[in-house]
Design goal:
By secondary structure, the chain is of the alpha+beta class. It is built from two helices and seven strands. 20% of the residues lie in helices and 30% in strands. Strands 4-7-5-6 form a four-stranded mixed sheet. It has a three-stranded antiparallel sheet with strand order 1-2-3, with no helix packed on it. A hairpin with a 3-residue loop joins strand 1 and strand 2. The chain is globular, with a radius of gyration of 15 Å.
């Protein structure tokens, strides 16, 4: 179990096998923040990294960072990430981008879902985030 001032993370509750790269349970006290699914768009609305899951994942995490900052949050405050990918083979690239911004002892709860398509054909990754900010 890891904790900071307002969040507690349990990587593997008793009787549950440890996951790779996420915590099974995260809870906290504070103000709840929901960030809509982010895709690989730059500030002009142009797709970054068409056909390149790693480049798209990096842009998605940058967009998440900006959205969290707008709410007074950081990746340390994230309690849940949901990944939507058009190919589960792209998950290692997504995890690499995540690991560049989230410390291994602060991993949120996570779900990954392969989808048939996202809302534009050149998009490969969409990620939504939930955070709890200390009050």
């Amino acid at each position: 179990m890891t904790a900071n001032s307002h969040l507690t993370r349990i990587p593997a509750p008793e009787g549950v096998a440890a996951g790779t790269g996420y915590s099974h349970v995260v809870w906290g006290t504070g103000r709840f923040v929901a960030v809509s699914g982010q895709c690989a768009f730059d500030e002009k609305g142009e797709v970054v990294g068409a056909g390149d899951a790693a480049a798209q994942a990096r842009q998605v995490f940058e967009n998440l960072r900006r959205c969290l900052a707008a709410a007074g949050a950081t990746f340390d405050d994230v309690v849940k990430l949901t990944y939507f990918v058009t190919d589960v083979a792209d998950l290692p690239a997504v995890r690499e981008a995540r690991d560049a911004v989230i410390a291994p002892d602060r991993l949120p709860a996570s779900s990954a879902v392969q989808v048939a398509a996202l809302f534009r054909p050149e998009l490969l990754v969409e990620i939504e985030a939930f955070a709890v900010v200390p009050t």
